[in-house]
Each structure stands twice: as C-alpha cells, then as structure tokens.
C-alpha cells in the first residue's frame, strides 16, 4: 500500500516535472518569438536569440550543395567556395555618400538587383560595397527563408549557418521610422549595433520593429524571390522558418556606382 508520505512525494515530483515541461515550452516559444534576424539570424531576420546560434542551419561552407530544382530556371551553383575572409575592424569609409550604388546578385536561379541609399546608411553601404569587392559573398548560400508572419530571404553568411560574419561589426543606421515593405533590403543582426555581412530581402510586406538597418530597394528579381518563397522551406526553426527548399547560392555579387 502506498503511504500518505509516498503519495505526497509522488505528487510533488509530478508537479515539479510539469513545471519543468512548462518552463521548457515557454523558453522555446520565447526563443521563436525573439528570433529576429541575427547577424550572428535572425528575425526576421532574422536573429535576436539567433537561430544561427542554435545550429538551426547546416551546410558545407566549402561546397554549396545543390538540391533538386524546386523553381523552374534554377540550376546548380557555379563551382567554387566562399573565401570566408576576416577583418578585425570595419572598412575605411571609401564610398561617395552622394552617389547611387547598385548591387547585382547573380544567383543560380537568376538575377536580383537593388539600389543602395548611401546618404542614409553610409556605413552599411560602404561595408556592402567593400565585401562585394572582396568577393566575400561569392558562392555563399542564402540560409534562411521565413514564410509566416515575416517574409524574407536571409543571405550573406559564408558558413550558411546563421552565425557567420566578416569579423567586424558596425553601427545601426536609418532606423527612425523604418518599415519593411516588399522590396526592402535590410541588415540582419543579433542586437543593437551588431551588423556584419548578413542581410535579408523582403519579398512581401513585413511588420518588424525598426531594429534592422534598411539600406536598399529591390529593382529587379522580386518575382524570382516570390517563386523561391513559394517553393517553401523546411521548418527547421519552427513553422514557416527554415532553410529554403530551393537552394539559392550567389555565384557572384557585384556593385556599381552611378
């Protein structure tokens, strides 16, 4: 027969186990809610409690793999591997803040182009132009796609894990009144002033707090991004959040001044 003391201990143990389960569930929910792009993932983009830090994304940084094409027109990525160069400090300001800069993302699925606002986000544009000139983005895989609540494709990490960076960080910019309508290009981060190389492309109007530096506007390829989003993602980080089913790799990334 179970004594009253044994029963009391059993109930106490069961209560403790329920509390632990509830705490774990609450922590997981908080992590998903706070996962806004961290440059370390993401959000969105995206990464407060960085998805990258949780190892949500995995890939071979030396040899981008090609999944079966889910989007018509997509092909295998060009041969090559990210150079994963590292720098200890932000690059010297070399851009003309009065000029217009255009970025061309040549992906295995087609081209995406966007203009960059050097006057409102000079450090961000200067860093992007510098990294592109160093071929830093070439052969890197877009590692995150979100399809519920926020609608972005996140790229710029040579490790495709969500935790990659060029080794330096720089300040946030252009946040006052920032919004993220379709066509916006903005920086991913892991908290205030932690920008590195990761950025996200907004393919559908998205509601986000003004915490991510918007620095560009897509001028070509938005239809392509929507097709990639339509192919889905693997829910690796939760419903509507994971790596895209259609592999997207930058063959080259270049910038021009006009």
UniProtKB/TrEMBL annotation:
Catalytic activity: [protein]-peptidylproline (omega=180) = [protein]-peptidylproline (omega=0)
Gene Ontology molecular functions: peptidyl-prolyl cis-trans isomerase activity
Pfam families, A to Z: Pro_isomerase
Matches recorded under InterPro entries: Cyclophilin-like_dom_sf, Cyclophilin-type_PPIase_dom, Cyclophilin_A-like
Location of region: Disordered: 1-24, 55-90
Residue ranges constituting the PPIase cyclophilin-type domain according to the UniProt record: 110-255
Coiled coil: none
Stretches with biased composition (Low complexity): 55-72
Organism superkingdom: Bacteria
Keywords tagged on the record: Isomerase, Membrane, Rotamase, Transmembrane, Transmembrane helix
The keyword Transferase is assigned to this record: no
EC number: 5.2.1.8
Composition bias type Basic and acidic residues, residue spans: 1-21
Top-rank EC class of the record's enzyme: isomerase
Regions that span the bilayer: 35-57
Gene3D superfamilies tied to this protein: Cyclophilin-like
Task of the protein: PPIases accelerate the folding of proteins. It catalyzes the cis-trans isomerization of proline imidic peptide bonds in oligopeptides.
Family assignment from sequence similarity: Belongs to the cyclophilin-type PPIase family.
UniProt name for this protein: Peptidyl-prolyl cis-trans isomerase
